[in-house]
Amino acid sequence: MTREINPLESVPEGIGKTQEKGQEEITRLLNRSEGQFSPELQKTLEKIDFAKLRQLFLDIALRFGIYEDDLNFLDKKRIFGSAVRSVDSYYDLENNIIMITQDKANISHYEARLKLKDNTGLVGDEKMLEVLNREKKAMIETYGSVDLSTLQTLVHEEVHAISKHICKSLYEQNVDKWTDVWLRVHQSGYRRNNIYKKQLNAEFYPAPLMESEKFLKVFMVLNEAVVEKLAREIMLKYLENSGWPREEASVFEETVKNKSKPLSYAREVYLLEAIIKKLSQKTKKSEESVWQIFIKGLLEGEKFDRPEERKIFEKNFSPNFLKELSNLSTWPSWHSKRHESIEELKAFMERYKL
What we know:
The protein is α/β, with parallel strands linked by helices. Helix content is about 50%, strand content about 15%.
C-alpha cells in the first residue's frame, strides 16, 4: 500500500529530509563490515524467485484496488541481514527496509569462535552454539529447512511492508522551559504507535537534561495475527510451483494445514481465527469472506473509528471488546514480556469464550 510519510504542522524537516534519512540508513548498513548481508543469507535469497513472490502480493493487492505502482513490495536492495548474533527480524517503517535474522551466519560465527586456538573470553559460546543448533533442528522439523524458515520470515515482513503506513511527526522548539517537544504517529496496518516526548530545556535545567515520554501501542496482536495468517497463505501458494524442493516444502505445508507444530505467532493467529469463526456464525457470512475483510483492513489501515464498524463487534462480543483487543500486547519468544503477554491473551480468550 502507499506509504504516507508526512509532516504535520511546524515541522522543520519535511518529506525530502525524511527520505534523505532513509537513504543514510541504507548507506550505513551497506558500509558495515559484514555488508548488506552474510554470504549464508545471500545464498538463501538467491533461491527465492522475487518476481513470482511479487506477483502473488500484487494479486492480493489488486483485489482491493491497490495497483502495482502503489505496492510497497521490497526487492533485495532493501533487504538487510541483522547484525550477527542478533535475533531481530523486522520491517523498518521509517527507512522502508527489511531486516532479517541471519540464522546460518550466527551458527557459523560461534563455530568459528570455538575453533580459535585461544578461547580466552569466550565463556558461553559453546552454550550459545548449542541453543542455536537446537533452534536449527526445530526450524527443519517445522519449516523443512532453515532456508524455508528464513523465507517465511521474509514473507511475513513483506506483508508488513505492503500494509497501509502512516508516519507523521510534529516538532516544536523552546516551548516555555521545554525544548524538543515532539509527537510521532506511526501506523502500520492495524497497529498504531503514538509517542509524545518532551525534554527539559538546558537553560532552565543545566544538567542533566530530564525527559518525559508517553508511549502508546494499540492493536499489536491483531496486526501480527493478520500479517502472519496472510503470510502463511502466500507461502503455500508460492511453494505450489516455485521449484522449491518438495521434501522441504511438504514439511511446511503439513505444519500449516494440520497445525502439527507451532509456527510464529501461533497463539495470535489462533485468536484471529476464533474471532473470524465467531463473526462468521453470528453474521451468517462465510469464514473466507470475513477473513477478506480483515485483509482489507490491514491494507487500508483500519482504525475502527466508524460507528457502524464498532457496532459489529459490540453486538457480537461486547461494548469493550475492541478496546480490550487493542490493548493486548505481543512480544517475541526471547523477550522478558512474552510470558506476560501470553497470559493476557489466554485470559482474553477465556473471557470471550474464543
